[in-house]
Amino acid sequence: MPELNGYYGIVAQREASKRRARKRKLIRLEDLRAHVVTQLKTGWTPEQIAGRLGYDDQPVHVIHESIYAFVYSTEGRSEQLSRYLPSRRKKRRPRYARRPRGQVFSPDRSIHERPEHVKSRETVGDWEGDLMIFERSQGTMNVVSLVERKTWFAALFRKKDRSSTHFINSSWT
Length: 173
Fold this sequence. Notes:
This protein is of the alpha+beta class and 173 residues long. Helices cover 31% and strands 17% of the residues. The protein has helices at residues 9-21, 25-28, 30-41, 46-52, 64-71, 74-78, 116-119, and strands at residues 127-133, 142-148, 153-159, 165-172. Strands 1-2-3-4 form a four-stranded antiparallel sheet, with no helix packed on it. A hairpin with an 8-residue loop joins strand 1 and strand 2. The relative contact order is 0.07.
């Protein structure tokens, strides 16, 4: 219908499904796949292989991300191609995902290694603090508790967001 133009979701979905149904180049084209695998086995990185394809008389070009996707796909894992990469991993990590951190507090700052005068509770002014961070499903409140070790004076603070801190309660126990 020539009088109708614009975006139609059904047509777009049909075209996207057609594109997805085609196999990737490195699976579909055997010569290209064989060339990439031999270059990987000789120690080349996917970036170097993708950059050299035009000079190696290959009619089809692929980018390095396609080579990485092939290496970490089921076909590449069956040939164990990931062991030929410079940074070897069994599974590819997401690019901008959170990375696990080490310990927040170093092990040399243990509570068991505090000075003797703090352990004996002889002087006023030694405070213990604790932070309680609750899950988001239980609300956004966090509570900080401070307890003076000799007098057991307790102060609790709740923190709803970064800007406001509210004093809840203090008590002598």
